[in-house]
Structures are given as C-alpha cells and as structure tokens.
Amino acid sequence: QVQLVESGGGLVQAGGSLRLSCAASGRTFSSYAMGWFRQAPGKEREFVATISRGGGVTYYADSVKGRFTISRDNAKNTVDLQMNSLKPEDTADYYCAARSYVGQSNSAKGYDYWGQGTSVTVSS
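RESULT FIELD:
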C-alpha cells in the first residue's frame, strides 16, 4: 500500500505557473506508475498526465500538452506536475494517483491509490 499527499496548489493569475508535488510513503515508490488527474466543480475527474515507473515515458491530455510537465524522483518518492501558461479552465482540484499494474493508464479506474487533492484556482 502507498500513501499519497499532494501540495503546491493555490491561486494564480492566468498565464502564471504552479508546481504541484506529491509525496509518497509506504511500499516501494518505483513499483508504481504515477498519474495526475483533476476535477472541476460539477465535472467528472479527468486525466492530466502520467509517468512510467522509471520516469522515461510520459503521456499528457491534449488540453495540457506543451504547458504541463510531469516528473518523478524515485530517490525522494515524489512526483511533480509543473504547470505553465495556466488558464482559467485549469481551475480544479488536482489529485495524485498510483498504479500498481503493468503499463500506464489515462483512466481513473486504472489507479489503485489516491491522494486527498490540492486545489488550483486560475483567475482571469
């Protein structure tokens, strides 16, 4: 089992940047592919980005491609999401998730463990 705690959310103006971080504890962090999802008020949780166990393979939602970067540090048990050129439509609660199965997934159902989320608000 792994415990996940997100941090780094906040209020930022459109065009600004934020860096979210997710700290993991428990079983070996490098055993998990990791993902970031987000959920805006009244909407379903949606995929943002995922990174492979070793960090060499990443995938992004089209809506964030070129603006967001996911990275991980297996020595520190962390996975980060660098968010640049933020837009008001990026406003949401952001969740870190861990996947114990082989491969990566852009579906929330493909992840076993979730953090409590961190809130991001982008003002226009």
